[in-house]
């Protein structure tokens, strides 16, 4: 596991660092050993709600946030029936000035939430560019990508329809979900779907002969349907 130096300077990040410590124990005070540890990265334009989604998921809370500086880090343990999964959630900064270093943060990720704001069309277009970046850096089946339209509570301001989101995701073989960090709509469901799918992949790997483990050798073409192809991971 790699740790990159984080530029943690503002109040928001200080609070998040504290949270990281707290998340190594369960709410009933017990330490859990993770069966699997997965790096999950949040990508997308400025102010689409990446930090708010992470905060909602980890703390079940919503509050006004400040722009992320560099990258923030969260941990969350999920207890599933057959395994304990630890998510290391890397919340990247959406500001343009951090773009050139972003690939350093998503290196080694097993899942990426590609977030856009359903009330700002340009953030949806920007998500498409993010996808191209990911295509350059990840091999076939190396990463699960979930296109997430956030801020569904802004019903009257919607600029990206659910159909547009779904259709684009379908055409690229991505998962799609719509969320609201503010009204707590489908946030946990997205992370739970990731956990279950990653666990499924582990189980498949265990039963698959080494020579047919395609993720070790082929280049990903996210435009082609693949095993991650989604209908949609959550109800929108
Ligand atoms: N209405 C609404 N506002 C939201 C939602 N999620 C986040 N916001 C607001 O959107 C703004 C940006 O939220 P952040 O979570 O900081 O966004 P971010 O993508 O992490 O932004 P950067 O750190 O700049 O990349 C804040 O004012 C949030 O309160 C949501 O689901 N609904």
Automatic annotation (TrEMBL):
SUPFAM superfamilies linked: P-loop containing nucleoside triphosphate hydrolases (SSF52540)
GO biological process, one term: plasma membrane bounded cell projection assembly
Domain of life: Eukaryota
Main subcellular localisation: other
Catalysis performed (reactions): GTP + H2O = GDP + phosphate + H(+)
Gene3D superfamilies: P-loop containing nucleotide triphosphate hydrolases
Keywords of this entry: Cell projection, Endosome, GTP-binding, Hydrolase, Lipoprotein, Magnesium, Membrane, Metal-binding, Nucleotide-binding, Phosphoprotein, Prenylation, Protein transport, Transport
Coiled-coil ranges (or none): none
PANTHER family: PTHR47978
Protein name: Ras-related protein Rab-17
């Amino acid at each position: 596991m790699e740790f990159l130096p984080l530029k943690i300077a503002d109040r928001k990040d200080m609070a998040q660092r504290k949270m990281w410590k707290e998340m190594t124990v369960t709410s009933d005070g017990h330490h859990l050993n993770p069966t699997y540890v997965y790096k999950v990265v949040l990508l997308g334009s400025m102010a689409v709600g990446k930090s708010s989604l992470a905060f909602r998921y980890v703390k079940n809370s919503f509050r006004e946030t400040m722009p992320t500086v560099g990258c923030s880090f969260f941990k969350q343990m999920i207890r599933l029936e057959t395994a304990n999964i630890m998510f290391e959630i890397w919340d990247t900064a959406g500001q343009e000035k951090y773009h050139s270093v972003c690939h350093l943060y998503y290196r080694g990720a097993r899942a990426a939430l590609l977030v856009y704001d359903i009330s700002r069309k340009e953030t949806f277009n920007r998500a498409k560019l993010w996808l191209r970046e990911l295509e350059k850096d990840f091999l076939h089946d190396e990463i699960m990508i979930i296109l997430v339209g956030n801020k569904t509570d802004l019903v009257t301001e919607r600029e990206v329809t659910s159909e547009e989101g779904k259709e684009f995701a379908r055409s690229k073989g991505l998962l799609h979900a719509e969320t609201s960090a503010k009204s707590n709509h489908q946030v946990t469901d997205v992370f739970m779907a990731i956990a279950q799918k990653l666990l499924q992949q582990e189980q498949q790997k265990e039963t698959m002969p080494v020579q047919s483990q395609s993720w070790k050798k082929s280049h990903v073409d996210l435009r082609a349907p693949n095993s991650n192809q989604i209908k949609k991971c959550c109800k929108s």
